[in-house]
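Posted in: Structural Biology > Protein-Ligand Complexes

Title: Requesting predicted complex, adenosine-5'-diphosphate in pocket

I'd be grateful if someone could produce the 3D structure tokens for the following input. Sequence and ligand are given below.
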Amino acid sequence: MFKKILIANRGEIAVRIIRACNEMGIQTVAVYSEIDKDALHTQMAGEAICIGPAKSKDSYLNMQNILSATVLTGAEAIHPGYGFLSENSKFTQMCEECNIKYIGPNSQNIDNMGNKLKAREMMINAGVPVVPGSDGAIDSEAIAISSAQRIGYPVMIKASAGGGGRGIRVVRKEEDLISAYNTAKSESKTAFGDDTMYMEKFIEEPRHIEFQILADEHGNVIHLGERDCSVQRRNQKVIEEAPGAVMTEELRKQMGEVAVKAARSINYKSAGTIEFLLDKYGKYYFMEMNTRIQVEHPITEMITGVDLIKAQIRIASGEALPYKQEDIKIQGHAIECRINAENPNRNFMPCPGEIKSIHIPGGYGVRIDSAAYQGYKIPPTYDSMIGKLIVHGIDREEALCKMRSALGEFIIEGVDTNIDFQFKIVNNENFIKGNFDTSFISKEFQDL
Ligand code: ADP
Ligand code: ADP
Ligand code: MG
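-- Reply #1 --
Done. Output follows.
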């Protein structure tokens, strides 16, 4: 097992990884930007190294500085968290070359799945159902028009390098196609430095159902059930739950087997997620694979009892998975609300600033993963997510009651948050009934 791990991230996920290392008796190194000098991850780690100015590109995306910090502190492995360098095959390759263990899949896995077009192609070859779409890249307006005609409206234009819900546009009629294509393309260029676009059939009112995979270096691949992440705003997840309210034992078995097949077909190693769209008729389609830990991983931990961060670390150190598929049992129901420093009444505008006071909910089955504390100044530079509230109940109904109670207790003063908005969602009649899909927020909260 590793003696020392460097965490190439910030915020709640860096704190989450430091905690796992502490529990495993592994020393930790935090890296931080100048503006994160007083951040929780900087304070909690055994050692902390400044890697540059606030801007991500100068610090958390600065591969040279992160690798130097690793060598300097004698850390043997790097955990990338999510976002930042977590899906950057060049960084993974540099780690491989420097003899530093990257806690995640190899650079080839990241390369193949990070390019969504290539991922589609590989999944088709592996016999995994994908959303009907364009054969390859859409690199001209003319190809966009002919592809949309062949696929049939409505269509979705997507960035091959995309992530975090960006670079995506729905087009319902031909006259809107060209402007949508060009804006998505330029958005992708700005966000990802790549403007390769492709097109998919727009699936109406689907559920976003994703499967958690664990794969070790000895050929064992298992899934840990699904998460329903259909409550989204602008293609970004807001609430996640596990298991999915519409899933049956039979569908879980089928989709789980397809997810395992998908991971096996690319010789995947580490934790990963296969995202599917499940349509109204019960048909499911591969959408993308995330080759990293996900924001919403705690809900899977709560219902399976498997610590996914520890599992990632153990897999990277060469250990075999200690459980088989049949050992994974789903217990109860878990829900996660993402807590963001933003103002829902001002078009969810991020609201950085100082947390004057904070009261965190507690109790049986209530978990907070956060890097916030009283007096902490949320910088304007990064993500507006400041934490996650996760509850676990014996069934969905109990989990919902716990979430309402916990959100009611949660008080943050000094910055605006989406806590009241989350409270409205968990009290929404259709949400309570489990009657929702990815269009839920835009339909139920039109005035926002
Ligand atoms: P998850 O399924 O883990 O919620 P998200 O798509 O919400 O994944 O992304 C998690 C985090 O990673 C977010 O902070 C998001 O902004 C960031 N992110 C995701 N994909 C990319 C990418 N390709 N480039 C940069 N950041 C990304
Ligand atoms: P990202 O990498 O940004 O997470 P995804 O490909 O996972 O991009 O898509 C993000 C979200 O957009 C999905 O969770 C889903 O709600 C919606 N979406 C993506 N593709 C389609 C599609 N073909 N039809 C309908 N909705 C889609
Ligand atoms: Mg996705």
